[in-house]
Amino acid sequence: MTRGSSTALVVAAALLLSACLGRAQWRGDAPFARGEWAAAASSYERQLSTAPTADDRDLALYRLALAYLAGTNPDKRTLARTALERLRRDYPDSDAAADAVALLARLDELDAVARTLATLREQRDASRMAVERLGELATALKDRAENTEGKLGTSEEERERLQKRVNQLEATAAQQRTTIAELSASIERLTEQLNALKSIDLDKPARR
Questions:
Q1: How far apart are alpha carbons 127 and 71 in whole angstroms?
Q2: Are 83 and 65 in contact (CB under 8 A)?
Q3: In whole angstroms, what is the distance from residue 5 CA to residue 71 CA?
Q4: Is pLDDT above 60 for 9?
Q5: In angstroms, how far is CA 155 from the centroid of its own chain?
Q6: Residues 63-119 pLDDT 10s
Q7: 90 Cβ neighbours under 8 A, 6+ residues apart
């Protein structure tokens, strides 16, 4: 899902959520509906801290989490978790709490996939470096074998030993290239999965 489509879904969620509100007026609703995530988050934060008895605080916390997640700063994901945990703790019987639980589970899955993806990328980088090093060693041995050919004191056995080592290095490099291809395929699949998870159900507003 592209950033533009995610934004459109969040705006649609905002409009639906606003229609559900019949009591409290939250200043973050307007910037939220316009897709101004930083402004919406800031407004929700201030009003949540200054209006502890306002109606629909559960929905405000849910929209605060969505605003964090829809923004471009990945560091805000921790703040989104905090808002969702607070919603689940303080309003356990609300419909929004049920949605918060589902959203937290999706975030857990997203983080797990991201960690696996990072590990695979590290492994692929290591394999690429290994292939490069193996190529350098094979080239050096080939040069050595060519330089010793025909020289006095160099036995056929020594030249065969060098060639055998070159073949081993090239076979190992071929195995590493296969590993790189497999890792790349896994990385591509996980990247698609990660992008799907980043939609974080933004098109599914909290229920009332």
A1: 35
A2: yes
A3: 13
A4: no
A5: 57
A6: 999 999 887 777 788 999 999 999 999 999 998 999 999 999 988 998 899 899 999
A7: 57, 58, 61
In degrees, rounded to 5, the angle at the alpha carbon of residue 172 between the alpha carbons of residues 166 and 177 is 125
How many beta carbons lie within 10 A of that of residue 93, not counting itself? 7
**pTM value surpassing 0.85:** no
Neighbours of 3 (CB within 10 A): 10
Sole residue written with tokens 């990072």: 118
* Closest to 67 (Cα-Cα) out of 7, 111, 122, 116: 7
Which pair of tokens denotes residue 171?
């076979």
Structure tokens at 56: 């629909």
94 Cβ partners below 8 Å, 6+ apart?
Answer: 58, 87
Distance CA 56, CA 71 (A): 23
Task: Flag whether pLDDT at 62 surpasses 80.
Answer: yes
The C-alpha atoms of residue 169 and residue 153 are separated, in whole angstroms, by 26
Structure tokens at 26: 């939250």
**Nearest-angstrom CA–CA distance, 202 and 103:** 9
Cα 195 to Cα 30: distance, rounded to the nearest angstrom:
27
By the 10 Å C-beta count (0-12 exposed, 13-18 middle, 19+ buried), 43 is classed as buried
Nearest residue to 67 (alpha-carbon basis) of 80, 58, 57: 80
**Is there a contact between 6 and 42 (Cβ–Cβ < 8 Å)?**
no
